[in-house]
Amino acid sequence: MMVLKKLMFVSIATSGLMFACHHAAHHDHVGASAAPKGVVKELYETANLKQKREIAQIEFDTLKAVKAQTEKFRQYRDSVEFDIKNLRLDLEEAQSNRNVTRSTEILHRITKKEEELRKSKQDERNLRYLLEEDKLKKINAVLKVK
Q1: Cβ contact 58:139 at 8 Å
Q2: Angle at 81 between CA 100 and CA 65, to 5 degrees
Q3: Residue 17 counted as domain residue
Q4: How far is CA 65 from CA 35, 69, 95, 135, in A?
Q5: pLDDT tens for residues 60-84?
Q6: Are 65 and 131 spatial neighbours (Cβ–Cβ below 8 Å)?
């Protein structure tokens, strides 16, 4: 009997939610024919299927290139972060031994490594921007837009 009461409560609660949020069940499906980011929707919608397939291939190739290039940056940053972590441990050791000159030298090296890290992130952002720009140029060429 207790189980039936719980099931009835769950049923009533679910029905109430469905009536309260009736619009949630009817969402617009964004299919494969959605315009890529940076491309005018009207131009994309008027393109024929061959052009849309070419655009999809361009997007896929760009995505692969971005992933491959950014993976190199990530690996480099991981190694630099590891170096920084080791330098911080060295700094802790130098400070415990009260070796001021060694501490200063290690702090200088940490600063250089952090600058390398910042530069690597900036280079990655620049590369992403260039690849994205190149993708848009190729898509515009397919759509014959100047």
Answers
A1: yes
A2: 155
A3: no
A4: 20, 6, 45, 11
A5: 999 999 999 999 999 999 999 999 9
A6: yes
**DSSP letter, residue 38:** T
The distance from CA 58 to its chain's CA centroid, rounded to whole angstroms, is 18
What whole-number distance in Å separates Cα of residue 41 and Cα of residue 51?
14
Range of the domain at 89: 39-143
**Helical packing angle, 49-96 and 100-143, nearest 10°:** 180
- The residue behind tokens 């008027």 is 46
In the numeric block, which tokens belong to residue 11?
Answer: 């049923």
Residue 22 is given by DSSP the state G
pLDDT tens across 97-123, in order? 999 999 999 999 999 999 999 999 999
Rounded to two decimals, the pTM is 0.66
**Into how many domains does the chain fold?**
1
55 contacts 141 by C-beta, under 8 angstroms: no
